[in-house]
Amino acid sequence: MSKDKPEIISDIYNYLKFYNEYKNYPVYANEVEHIDASFDFQETSAGKPDSIIAGEKQVYEKPVYEMKKANEDIVVEKPVSIYSPRKDFSHCDSLDKFYEEIKDCRKCSHLAETRNNLVFGYGNPAAEIVVVGEAPGAEGDKQGKPFVGRAGKLLTDILKAIEFDREDVFICNILKCRPPENRNPLPGEIMNCEPYLFKQLELIKPKMILALGTFAGQTLLKSKEPLGKLRGSFHEYNGIKLLVTYHPAALLRNPNWKKPTWEDVKLFRKEFDSMKK
Ligand code: URA
After folding, report:
1. Measured between alpha carbons, how far is 220 from 235 in angstroms, rounded to an integer?
2. Which of 180, 211, 220, 263 could form a disulfide with 244 if both were Cys (CB 3.0 to 4.6 A apart)?
């Protein structure tokens, strides 16, 4: 007897959940392309993001829109939408337009219900450096900005130590919405959200990317290698030099990783300087 669509989606959800729990195999869209699930955007009259001028620098500021209250009754264990047709973003030729396009995304409906803000990213829309983290934390979710908590302060210090100002770079995440209880992103959530990061990188066209932690490194490099193997040397993402290092939150838990991180970011700065010559 053939299965109907909800049953197939439920099977695939369980399959994704299994792999997430055992963390050994990310599942990507092309493995489940025959499944049709809708790309669900909600239109609202929410405000536009502002590109503001801060001194000489153009800064992509916190998007302004209605704060959604987290719904306590929500069941987070709902199936993620595991396949979304590739949406054409070619009409979005700026970060502002692209933000308008995705600001009400509900592809991961469970995250859309629990988030306060979709955290698009922050910084210079013409940055030479893009820093990619994992997903917004509690404070970032409240403020609509990436890396604003303790890990964010450490990231600011790390950037300062290699003479980059937080306002000069662009900071964003693999997931634009906060996973509840700061759990790891699920493979289906990454699959839903990664096209947004790829489009941001296409618009910003940075010279270099700094990927923070396993999820950022593995997603951008389409790799299953552990962080220990990914860090320490340069990779390429679409012709852009990419370095993976420890996530600042991991450094807060394990200060022994500060030294190798320092080595990584010094290497990053040296490469950046040599590209400028
Ligand atoms: N805040 C973010 O925006 N990203 C992270 O990865 C961690 C905290």
Report:
1. 10
2. 211
- Spacing, Cα 201 to ligand 1 middle (Å): 18
Total number of domains constituting the chain: 1
What are the contacts of 89-92 at 24+ separation with CB within 8 A? Answer: 89/195, 89/199, 92/199, 92/203
10-residue mean pLDDT series, the chain (277 residues): 64 59 41 32 31 40 37 38 62 97 97 98 98 97 97 98 97 98 96 97 98 98 98 97 98 97 98 93
Give the position of tokens 């054409």: 88
pLDDT at residue 15 in the model: 59
What's the pLDDT score for residue 191? 97
User: Residue 243: what are its φ and ψ, rounded to 5°?
Assistant: -120, 135
pTM: 0.73
Residue span of the structural domain in which 113 resides: 5-276
Are 182 and 137 contacting, i.e. CB atoms less than 8 angstroms apart?
A: yes
Q: Beta strand pairing status for 51-54 and 57-60? A: antiparallel
pLDDT of residue 276: 84
- Ligand 1, CB within 6 Å, residue ranges: 133-137, 140, 146-147, 151-152, 173, 249
Question: Domain of 13: which CATH number?
Answer: 3.40.470.10
Q: Which is the closest atom of ligand 1 to the Cα of 133?
A: 6
